[in-house]
Design a protein that fits this description.
Layout lengths: L14 E3 L7 E3 L5 E2 L8 E2 L9 E3 L5 E7 L7 E15 L6 E7 L6 E5 L10 E3 L5 E4 L10 E7 L7 E12 L4
Antiparallel strand pairs: 1-2, 2-13, 3-6, 4-5, 5-13, 6-12, 7-10, 7-11, 7-13, 8-9, 8-12
């Protein structure tokens, strides 16, 4: 009996650049690797060609990741996710979600914690709001310039649901 894989693999054609010469990457919902993403009890993934968000029904293990290839050496980039909590969201109280990123397979992760505010349900927000997660592609002669990143909450063991992920973005870092 053939076993189907329970996870949704990222579709590379769902990772696009804004404009021809832009360094801004937009990762649409189907461009994300989603743990338990092929199980409709846990996630609702928009159909190919649809513009709707990825919807979390319920999970205890939130792991949504992706990667962007061939970033420019010597530059820094910021990572954000556009998300929304539904009015019936649950499990987010006293929970922190981690945004993590590294450059190259052997890179060291940088991370920031985010608290999702259930009082802002049905409102799209960009996370992190105030302290952007910025990561540099160094050294300038690096051969592995792939940014690996994700949104995680795997430590609490609590069930959570009602999260919509509209997209992720990788943009050039702004000067302080």
């Amino acid at each position: 009996m053939a076993m189907t894989k329970p996870h949704h693999p990222a579709e590379k054609d769902e990772i696009t650049k804004e404009g021809d010469k832009s360094d801004i990457y937009v990762i649409k919902p189907r461009g994300l690797n989603i743990v338990w993403g092929k199980d409709e009890r846990y996630w609702k993934i928009p159909d190919k060609g649809c513009t709707g968000p990825l919807e979390l029904i319920q999970v205890s293990w939130l792991e949504v990741t992706s990667s962007v290839d061939s970033l420019e050496s010597g530059k820094a980039y910021e990572l954000t996710f556009d998300v929304e909590l539904t009015s019936d969201a649950f499990g987010w109280k006293d929970i922190q979600v981690f945004l993590m990123a590294k450059v190259g397979k052997k890179g060291k992760y940088k991370w920031t914690k985010v608290k999702l505010n259930q009082d802002q349900s049905n409102k799209k927000v960009t996370i992190p709001e105030n302290s952007k997660l910025s990561i540099g592609v160094v050294p300038e002669d690096s051969t592995d310039n792939t940014l690996h990143f994700g949104l995680y909450e795997v430590w609490s063991g609590k069930w959570k649901g009602g999260l919509k992920i509209h997209n992720a973005k990788v943009t050039p870092a702004t000067a302080p």
